[in-house]
Backbone:
């Protein structure tokens, strides 16, 4: 059976329990279609780059799936009908990676404060930068 990575976005006003119920519902669709769901990750409530169906934020959920194409098609059909799901994407992959996804690794790095943003450790903040404009007068 082919391997898939699937991410879906849920409305910002849905509770965590509603997101869990949706995840369980879609897992059931996959298993009843002859597939299986491996790793499941909840990436959290994140800001969207642009509004999607009047939402500025969304709950992100990731699934590792091994299933026949018919089961994937049925899951996507049910997601397109569901009003709580605002976007989804399924990508066929050669194999699933072991360990946490890149999003989960990035979240752990941010919790430790090890990011290299403005003013973070290892980076230069605006206070340290020299914005002087040395120009010679003509």
Residues:
């Amino acid at each position: 059976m082919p391997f898939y990575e699937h991410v879906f976005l849920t409305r910002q006003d849905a509770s965590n329990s509603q997101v869990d119920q949706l995840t369980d519902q879609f897992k059931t669709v996959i298993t009843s279609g002859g597939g299986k769901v491996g790793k499941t990750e909840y990436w959290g409530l994140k800001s969207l780059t642009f509004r999607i169906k009047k939402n500025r934020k969304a709950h992100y959920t990731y699934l590792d799936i091994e299933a026949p194409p018919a089961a994937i098609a049925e899951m996507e059909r049910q997601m397109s009908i569901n009003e709580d799901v605002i976007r989804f994407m399924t990508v066929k992959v050669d194999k699933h990676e072991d360990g946490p996804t890149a999003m989960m690794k990035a979240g752990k790095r941010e919790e430790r404060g090890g990011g290299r943003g403005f003013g973070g450790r290892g980076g230069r903040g605006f206070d340290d930068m020299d914005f002087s404009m040395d120009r010679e007068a003509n």
About this structure: The domain at 3-112 is CATH 3.30.70.60 (Alpha-Beta Plaits). Strands lie at 3-11, 36-52, 55-66, 85-93. The mean pLDDT is 80.
